[in-house]
Design goal:
The complex is a heterodimer of chains A (293) and B (252). Helices cover 84% and strands 0% of the residues of chain A. Chain A has 293 residues and is mainly α. Chain A folds into two domains: 59 residues; 222 residues, MetI-like fold (Orthogonal Bundle), CATH 1.10.3720.10. Chain B has 252 residues and is of the alpha/beta class. Chain B has two domains: 169 residues, 3-Layer(aba) Sandwich (Rossmann fold); 66 residues, no CATH class. Chain B is built from eight helices and nine strands. In chain B, the strands form two sheets. In chain B, strands 5-6-7-3-8-9 form a six-stranded mixed β-sheet, sandwiched between helices. The radius of gyration of chain B is 18 Å and the shape is globular. Classes of the chains: A mainly alpha (293), B alpha/beta (252). Chains A and B meet through helix 8 and helix 9 of A and helix 2 of B.
Chain lengths: 293, 252
């Protein structure tokens, strides 16, 4: 019904060039336009006000920069320390991306294995849950005792945190196939492999992508937390270590600058994964279609 | 005399919870038959169809194919359109070919022909979500027809559609059958639909499910809207309705 009435509206637009049918419609459109603008403007205003108030507080109370730096000082530190911060950012980013990649392969692979054999699922699933519910901060020190390479240790930690949402979501998706379609595949004599490839994996794709978006954020958290635990300096120190080190030296502006970069990285990962999800689903999946309109 | 295609001999099906879905069901389907299985819900119509499709095995009795023993090809149309939402219309129709290892380009013409038969040649590249309920059902029918199977099984395919669409698809289905000469087993709970479409109706009773009457609908094909209002049609509907009543009286 709804799609019919909207297509009618669209024809009206094409014919007359006028979208507005009556007063109610005019109000509705106006409301929608205001909402669209507010969606971007309001957060921007909140940000500006916060930054301005922060700046004023520092200025009015004459707070020294080693206690609370002004926003301007954070930005200038970000620019001045850029070479150091960039190196650290690249390392954190590298760990996060690698961990996410391993989580995708491990999580999705294990999910496929689970749906192929219930016995494997019964044997392993409880341990996947245990690994997930045990705080990574508690596991990490042990990992760094047994794993020589610091990078490998960070990677393992980030992977442990990130793989579970992919595993559980993909398993759910692979088991959510339409029962009639499953029957149809059987009638046409589909092999197990064909059923997996042409039915289960496409059905699981939206679930997997949902898990991936959660895992992206978790991989970053895992990488940062593990680095705090690892704590040692030298080569291969990421943003978390930069924050620790700057803290020891009371270089508060650099702490803020590094924090800004971590937050930015998280936002970027989420945006990229959302975009990927949209690209893969927008033609057919309900979730992506609703977001369009 | 038409050639026999399929026989059910004393077929029974009992599910694990001691539910007897079918008991001693015997039925013969001839080449070119349009056979309707008509009965109240729970009479085992769909179970019978699933047994014929090979989706489950009978507890007792047997299902035998006559003639060519190597070809048990089946087309199946469910109550829901049962399309893959991630694939375009033509890719959905490609499915049965794809599962037998045929590339899309090698069967593209067959797919287009099949879509043209159901009047959807212009929607080959649309996604299922862009189609109405009736159109989705047509895609489902095109997919069942495309492989030119020996028999098409339809499980209440039009039950979820509104009456106008149902009548239209009834007419189109008969035209398709006229053109292709396919054999169809059609499950329905509508007396009117079964009389309009079929040349034979097997009226079934519930608990346990079985065939209690077989009716011949002698009216010649092609049948169109005029048949729907003819005295002949009304008479057949009355007979069928009485048989259905009889099937329910014995039990409630």
């Amino acid at each position: 019904m709804q799609s019919e009435s909207s297509s009618e509206l669209q024809t009206a637009t094409e014919d007359t060039g006028i979208y507005i049918v009556d007063d109610e419609e005019r109000r509705r459109l106006l409301r929608r336009r205001i909402e669209r603008i507010s969606k971007w403007c309001l957060p921007a205003i909140v940000l500006l006000l916060t930054v301005w108030y922060w700046d004023r507080i520092v200025h009015w109370n004459e707070i020294p920069h080693y206690i609370l730096p002004s926003p301007g000082r954070v930005i200038s530190t970000l620019l001045a320390d850029w070479p150091i911060l960039l190196d650290a950012l690249l390392i954190t980013l590298q760990i996060t991306c690698l961990a996410l990649a391993v989580a995708v392969i491990g999580g999705a692979g294990l999910a496929i294995l689970f749906t192929q054999s219930r016995f494997i699922q019964m044997s392993l699933f409880p341990y996947a849950v245990i690994l997930q519910v045990t705080p990574i901060v508690a596991i990490a020190p042990l990992i760094f005792i047994y794993v020589e390479s610091k990078i490998a240790g960070l990677l393992i930690c980030a992977w442990i945190v990130a793989f579970f949402p992919i595993l559980s979501n993909t398993t759910l998706g692979l088991n959510s196939t339409d029962h009639n379609l499953r029957d149809l595949f059987r009638i046409y004599g589909a092999s197990r492999w064909q059923q997996l490839l042409h039915l289960q994996i496409p059905t699981a794709l939206p679930y997997f992508l949902g898990g991936l978006r959660i895992a992206g954020g978790l991989a970053l958290i895992g990488a940062v937390v593990a680095e705090y635990v690892a704590g040692t300096g030298g080569i291969g120190s990421g943003l978390a270590f930069t924050i620790l080190e700057a803290g020891y030296r009371l270089n508060i502006p650099r702490m803020f600058a590094a924090l800004l970069l971590i937050a930015g990285t998280g936002v970027m990962i989420f945006t990229v994964l959302s975009l990927l999800s949209h690209l893969l689903l927008h033609k057919w999946h309900e979730s992506a279609i609703k977001r369009d309109s | 005399m038409q050639q026999k295609l399929l026989s059910l001999r004393h077929v029974g099906k009992t599910f694990s919870a001691n539910i007897e879905a079918l008991r001693d069901m015997s039925l013969t389907v001839a080449e070119g038959d349009f056979l309707s299985l008509l009965g109240p819900s729970g009479c085992g119509k769909s179970t019978a169809l699933r047994l014929i499709a090979g989706l489950s095995d009978p507890t007792t009795g047997q299902i035998a194919w006559h003639g060519d023993q190597t070809d048990h090809s089946i087309g199946f149309v469910f109550q829901e359109p049962t399309l893959m939402p991630w694939a375009t219309v033509e890719r959905n129709v490609w499915l049965p070919f794809r599962l037998t290892g045929k590339s899309f380009s090698s069967v593209q013409d067959t797919i287009r022909e099949s879509l043209a038969l159901v009047g959807l040649e212009n929607f080959a590249e649309s996604y299922p979500r862009e189609l109405s309920g009736g159109m989705k059902m047509r895609v489902s029918i095109a997919r069942a027809l495309a492989t030119n199977p020996r028999i098409i099984l339809m499980d209440e395919p039009f039950a979820a559609l509104d009456e106008i669409n149902r009548f239209r698809l009834n007419n189109d289905l008969l035209k398709l059958r006229e053109k292709l000469g396919c054999t169809i087993i059609f499950v329905t709970h509508s007396v009117f639909e079964s009389v309009f479409l079929s040349n034979r109706i097997a009226v079934m009773a519930a608990r346990p499910g079985r065939v209690i009457r077989e009716l011949e609908i002698g009216a010649p094909y092609p049948r169109d809207e005029r048949f729907r209002t003819s005295a002949d049609y009304v008479a057949h509907c009355r007979t069928t309705s009485e048989a259905l009543q009889e099937s329910m009286d014995g039990h409630d």
